[in-house]
Amino acid sequence: MISNSLTQKVLVAGATGLVGGALLEILTKEITVQEIIVLGRTEPGLKSSKIKFVSTDFTNPDQIEGHFEGVHTVFCCIGTIIKTAGSQEAFRKVDFGIPETLARLAARHQVKSMIVISSIGADASSSNFYLRTKGEMENCVSSYKISKTAFLRPSLIKGPRKEFRWKELVSSVFLNLFSFLLIGKFKRYRAIDHDEIAMAMWRISNSANNTVVYESDEIQWIGG
User: Where do the domains of the chain lie?
Assistant: First the structure.
């Protein structure tokens, strides 16, 4: 069931990333989307009269708070890896700190929904730092009073990345070759296309379904 809202003002964080870029393309083509606030350090390459880019320092929430006024949905596509971030502390500032800031401001300005990319295996009690951070992020964001909060937990994401990730390349080749073996409860471990995740984010934001967590196979089904 799709929302009856005639027009929406939406906000996107992480629009220059793999999924964020695909989501931005979808949003610019949607007639129900009137304005797109893009928060980030780098202006997206895609140009549209709907897009308003805001150069953002996420450590200074006061700088961006005004842009949440009247926003219907916040899409958080922020994500990095520890190697790129440089340390566990730097990684946490991005993958936990930024979604927490967005959720806090969204709740304060009565944003209707927040859709966040997390990770398969996210678990606040995990011994793995990456997965534990993602799980703690989900718990923290969920604690804010936002009418609809949804977390997407994709498996390995396929798509043309700007940065080369050797481990992901090897994993992608392996999963593509043996995906037919991943059935039943293991189906969620199949690699997933970035544009499927983006489309799922948009569709989930307009759905009356109140599911909080979407596993990778569910994302693929919704976004396919």
Answer: 8-158+192-217
Asked whether the beta carbons of 48 and 91 are under 8 A apart, the reply is no
Q: Tell me: the pLDDT tens digits for 201-217?
A: 999 999 888 889 999 99
> Beta partners for 54?
39
End-to-end CA distance of the chain: 17
Structure token pair of residue 175? 């999963």
Superfamily for the 8-158+192-217 domain? NAD(P)-binding Rossmann-like Domain (3.40.50.720)
| Distance (Å, whole) CA 78 – CA 164 | 18
Distances (CA, A) of 125 to 82, 128, 133, 136: 19, 9, 9, 8
- Each residue's pLDDT tens digit, 33-88: 999 999 999 999 999 999 999 999 998 988 999 999 999 999 999 988 888 889 99
